[in-house]
Specification:
Elements: H1 19-27, E1 33-38, H2 46-54, E2 59-62, E3 71-75, E4 78-82, E5 95-98, E6 103-104, H3 106-117, E7 128-131, E8 135-136, H4 139-156, H5 167-175, H6 182-185, H7 189-206, H8 214-228, E9 232-233, H9 235-244, E10 250-253, H10 278-284, E11 291-299, E12 302-304, H11 317-325, E13 338-340, E14 342-343, H12 344-354, E15 358-362, E16 372-381, E17 384-386, H13 393-398, E18 400-407, H14 424-437, E19 446-447, E20 463-465
Parallel strand pairs: 1-10, 1-11, 2-5, 2-10, 5-7, 6-8, 7-9, 11-15, 14-16, 15-20, 19-20
Antiparallel strand pairs: 3-4, 12-13, 16-17, 16-18
Helix pairs in contact: 4-5, 7-8
Pathway: Purine metabolism; AMP biosynthesis via de novo pathway; AMP from IMP: step 1/2
Function: Plays an important role in the de novo pathway of purine nucleotide biosynthesis.
Cofactor: Mg(2+)
Length: 480
């Protein structure tokens, strides 16, 4: 039903949205967060980009996922490995925040912290805040994760390739409204224990071979409750105060990547959370108008862990070379990654969903030795070019990739610190990424490194970071 109403027919107070009100609302929007997201299948190097931007951040946040992510950050020659903690925790002047969209395995959290303490991480617990609405991952979730993978392999001849960290089962408990949150753990422990026992029984009924020490886990959880109590805050109020108090630089560290998103990824070979920009709002409890810059992190070629369609995959000497030179194996599981050419159809699709304001290109130097470099620019299906990224995996398996071949640069780019330091062929390759896909006009390109350009410079730029100081793994090593 539609219609119009004359202005003099409007009821009192319904005079429409006035300009003054809009101006007032704009003035009270508050600070905006800078978001770093993966634009492919993970492992793009988000950790390195976050590391660069976190040096002058006040708050670094995680909004989704769990300890299925793996971030390697090198500072002063020391490698720190993070899975659940925001990698910005190494910034002693910043607060790290685990939002409500994250699922938290408390034994894993403290094990991770203790390992990094031995490498030099200090006073992390004084800089970490955990949302009281974050759901918990239990040991039986992890056991079930493994059992489900075994079942899939037996029934279907293939599995999803999860990290067996219990992420999927924990999000399943959350969606079934049976999950337990941090606030439940810190409230009435007898009530928490009753719900925990019930949840464990539910899983045991579904998986008769599941063995779990319920009372032993409860005893450990009671100890963890007291350890995390000083870190727990109302996450919504914390973020609101951060956004609307004195101006702060807030960085959101996305885990996983666009093609692993539960809704928009290559389903079912995805992770169990929204790792696109919408997950920032739901995973932190902030409105869309507080989203500022959105960095899409792109590896200069494409990699994928586990099974699933991969249109530009190179099962040949090119794939072997990329895997070897790029040190393409995961921090979380050590699994080797499949490798292929850069796929601009994926980039365009990820941009449609996330609205990237800039691209951060990583590991360009891995291509330094190639005589020529190919870029996947379009897909054909049954001989006809298609303008979209197929949702169905069987269809995606059948697409024919159209490539553009560009000359290689045969020059070492690891020492590049300015755009002008890159050879013309490498510059052309980078421009091709944004211009053909209309993602970003490269008006002000830059090359960044921890010891290079200032991370506080204007953000609307494409960024190239090399990998020479992050061997064996310079990237965010996400696996499902």
């Amino acid at each position: 039903m539609s219609g119009t109403r004359a202005s003099n027919d409007r009821p009192p107070g319904a005079g429409g949205v006035k300009r003054g009100r809009l101006q007032h609302e704009a003035a009270t929007t508050g600070s905006r967060v800078t978001v770093v997201l993966g634009a492919q299948w993970g492992d793009e190097g988000k950790g390195k980009v976050v590391d660069l931007l976190a040096t002058d951040a006040d708050i670094i946040s995680r909004c989704q996922g769990g300890n299925n992510a793996g971030h390697t950050v090198v500072v002063d020659g020391k490698e720190y490995d993070f899975h659940l903690l925001p990698s910005g925790i190494i910034n002693t002047k910043a607060v790290s925040f685990i939002g409500n969209g994250v699922v938290v395995h408390l034994p894993g959290l403290f094990e991770e912290a203790e390992k990094n303490e031995k490498k030099g991480l200090k006073d992390w617990e004084k800089r970490l805040i955990i949302s009281d609405r974050a759901h918990l991952v239990f040991d039986f979730h992890q056991a079930v994760d493994g059992l489900q993978e075994v079942q899939r392999q037996a029934q279907e001849g293939k599995n999803i390739g999860t990290t067996r960290k219990g992420i999927g089962p924990a999000y399943s408990s959350k969606a079934a409204r049976a999950g337990l949150r941090v606030c439940d753990l810190l409230s009435d422990f007898d009530e928490f224990s009753a719900r925990f026992r019930n949840l464990a029984r539910q899983h045991q009924s579904m998986f008769p071979t599941l063995e779990t020490d319920v009372e032993g886990q409860l005893k450990k959880l009671k100890g963890f409750a007291e350890r995390i109590r000083p870190m727990v805050r109302d996450g919504v109020y914390f973020m609101y105060e951060a956004l609307h108090g004195p101006p702060k630089k807030i960085l959101v560290e996305g885990a996983n990547a666009a093609l692993l998103d539960i809704d928009f990824g290559t389903y079912p070979f995805v992770t169990s959370s929204n790792c696109t920009v919408g997950g920032v709002c739901t995973g932190l409890g902030i409105p869309p108008q507080n989203i500022g810059e959105v960095y899409g992190v792109v590896k200069a070629y494409t990699t994928r862990v586990g099974v699933g369609a991969f249109p530009t995959e190179q099962i040949n000497e090119i794939g072997d070379l990329l895997q070897s030179r790029g040190h393409e194996w995961g921090v979380t599981t050590g699994r080797k990654r499949r490798c292929g050419w850069l796929d601009l159809m994926i980039l365009r699709y990820a941009h449609m969903i996330n609205g990237f304001t800039a691209l951060a290109l990583t590991k360009l130097d891995i291509l330094d030795t190639l005589d020529e470099v190919k870029v996947g620019v379009s897909y054909k299906l049954s001989g006809k070019r298609i303008p979209y990224f197929p949702a169905n995996q069987e269809i995606l398996q059948k697409v024919e990739v159209e490539y553009e071949t560009l000359p290689g640069w045969k020059t070492d780019t690891t020492g590049a610190r300015k755009w002008e330091d890159l050879p013309p062929q490498a510059q052309s390759y980078i421009r091709e990424m944004g211009w053909r896909r209309q993602i970003q006009r490269f008006d002000d390109p830059a090359v960044l490194d921890r010891d290079g350009a200032e991370p506080s410079r204007p953000r609307r730029v494409p960024v190239h970071t090399n990998s020479h100081n992050r061997v064996p793994s310079s990237a965010v090593n996400k696996e499902k």
